[in-house]
C-alpha cells in the first residue's frame, strides 16, 4: 500500500515538474517572440525608452502598489465575513508575498495557495474559511471584469470591430462555467459526475467550491463592499496604464485602457505561463497596435508594465525574507 502511494506521489511530482518546465518554456518563447520580431527596430525602441517621463512611471508603480493594498483590504473583508479576523498589516504582507509567488516562482505553489497556507500556519485561521474567501475573491473578480468589459465596450465599439464578439463569447463561457461550479446541483451537474466513473473524483472539489460560495449567502454587505473594492482595483490598473501612456505621450483615451484591462486579466488567467509572463506583453502589444500605436511604442509600453510587475513582486520577496528572518514565519519556498 505504501509503495503504491509513493509511486502515485512520485508520478504527480514528475507531472508538476514537467508542467512547470513547460510554463517556463512558453513564457520564454513568448518573450523571445517580441524580441526577435523587434530586434531590427532596437534604435526606435531605445529612443522611446530614453524619452519617457520617469515621474509618471513612478506614479504608475505606486498606483499598482496601492492596488495591491486595496486587494489586502478586500481580502480582509471577505475573511471577516467568515469570522476570521487578522491584522490588516499582516494581510498586506500576505498579499505581497502571494504576488511574489504568482509572478516570480516557476512552481505549482500559486499565490492563492500561499495565502491560505500562510494564514493557517502562522495565524491558526481555519483552512476551509480562508479557501472560501479565496474562491469568492475569484468569483467577484470575474463579475467585475465582465462589468468592466461591458461598460467599456460600448464606448469604443467602433474601434473593436469583430474582436468584441470573440472576447464577449469567451467571457460568457467563463461566467457560465463559474456559475455551474457555484451552483452545480441547481443545474443538475452532479448527475453527470455520478454517471461517469472517470470524473467522479473531481466532484468533491466542485462541491467544496459550491459550499464556499453558499457560505456567503447571508453576507451580502460584505460581498457588496468586496465587489466595490474589486471594481476600484480594476480602475487603478487602468490608471496605471494611463500613467504609462502619458509618460510615452501616446494619444490613447482612458476608456481604451479601461477596455484593455479585463481582456488582459482574462488572458493571463490562463495558466500556460509564469504569472502571465509573455502572454501579458504580447497581448498589450497586439491591442495597442490595433488602436493605432506604433509597434515600437507598444513594445516599450509592455516592457514598462513588465518592470512594474517584477519590481512589486520583488518587494513581495523582500517582505517574505524580512518576515522569515525576524519573525520566523512558516513559509515554504
Describe it:
- With 333 residues, this protein is mostly helical.
- It has one domain.
- The chain has 14 helices and no strands.
- The longest helix is centred in the N-terminal third of the chain and has 37 residues, at 2-38.
- The radius of gyration is 21 Å and the shape is globular.
- Residues 1-12 have low confidence and may be disordered.
Furnish the topology, listing elements before pairings.
Elements (H helix, E strand, L loop, with lengths): L1 H37 L3 H9 L3 H27 L7 H16 L7 H13 L3 H29 L1 H4 L2 H20 L6 H7 L7 H12 L5 H29 L5 H15 L10 H12 L4 H33 L6
Compact overview of the structure:
This protein has 333 residues and is mainly α.
Q: Which secondary-structure class do the elements indicate?
A: mainly alpha
The run of helices and strands is HHHHHHHHHHHHHH
Helix count, per DSSP? 14
In terms of DSSP E residues, the strand content is under 5%
Percent of residues in helices:
over 70%
Number of domains: 1
C-alpha end-to-end distance: 30 Å
Largest sheet: none
Give a count of the beta strands, DSSP E runs of length 2 or more. 0
Low-confidence stretches: 1-12
General shape: globular
The Cα radius of gyration reads 21 Å
Q: Could you name the key traits of this structure?
A:
333 residues; mainly alpha; 14 helices; disordered N terminus
Amino acid at each position: 500500500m505504501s509503495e503504491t502511494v509513493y509511486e502515485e506521489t512520485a508520478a504527480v511530482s514528475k507531472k508538476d515538474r514537467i508542467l512547470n518546465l513547460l510554463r517556463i518554456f512558453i513564457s520564454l518563447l513568448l518573450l523571445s517572440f517580441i524580441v526577435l520580431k523587434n530586434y531590427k527596430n532596437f534604435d526606435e525602441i531605445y529612443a522611446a525608452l530614453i524619452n519617457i517621463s520617469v515621474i509618471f512611471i513612478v506614479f504608475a508603480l505606486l498606483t499598482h502598489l496601492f492596488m495591491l493594498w486595496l486587494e489586502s483590504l478586500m481580502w480582509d473583508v471577505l475573511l471577516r465575513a467568515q469570522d476570521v479576523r487578522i491584522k490588516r498589516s499582516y494581510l498586506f504582507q500576505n498579499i505581497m508575498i502571494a504576488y511574489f509567488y504568482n509572478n516570480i516562482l516557476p512552481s505549482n505553489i500559486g499565490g492563492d495557495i500561499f495565502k491560505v497556507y500562510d494564514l493557517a500556519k502562522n495565524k491558526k485561521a481555519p483552512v476551509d474559511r480562508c479557501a472560501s474567501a479565496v474562491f469568492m475573491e475569484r468569483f467577484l473578480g470575474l463579475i467585475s471584469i465582465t462589468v468592466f468589459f461591458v461598460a467599456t465596450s460600448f464606448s469604443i465599439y467602433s474601434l473593436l470591430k469583430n474582436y468584441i464578439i470573440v472576447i464577449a463569447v469567451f467571457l460568457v463561457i467563463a461566467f457560465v462555467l463559474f456559475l455551474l461550479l457555484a451552483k452545480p446541483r441547481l443545474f443538475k451537474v452532479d448527475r453527470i459526475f455520478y454517471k461517469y466513473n472517470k470524473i467522479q473524483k473531481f466532484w468533491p472539489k466542485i462541491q467544496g467550491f459550491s459550499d464556499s460560495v453558499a457560505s456567503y449567502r447571508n453576507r451580502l454587505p460584505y460581498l457588496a463592499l468586496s465587489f466595490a473594492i474589486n471594481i476600484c482595483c480594476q480602475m487603478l490598473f487602468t490608471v496605471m496604464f494611463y500613467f504609462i501612456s502619458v509618460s510615452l505621450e501616446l494619444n490613447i483615451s482612458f476608456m481604451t485602457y479601461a477596455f484593455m484591462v479585463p481582456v488582459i486579466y482574462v488572458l493571463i488567467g490562463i495558466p500556460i505561463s509564469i504569472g502571465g509572463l509573455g502572454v501579458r506583453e504580447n497581448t498589450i502589444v497586439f491591442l495597442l497596435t490595433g488602436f493605432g500605436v506604433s509597434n515600437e511604442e507598444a513594445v516599450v509600453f509592455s516592457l514598462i508594465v513588465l518592470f512594474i510587475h517584477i519590481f512589486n513582486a520583488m518587494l513581495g520577496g523582500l517582505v517574505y525574507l524580512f518576515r522569515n528572518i525576524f519573525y520566523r514565519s512558516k513559509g515554504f519556498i
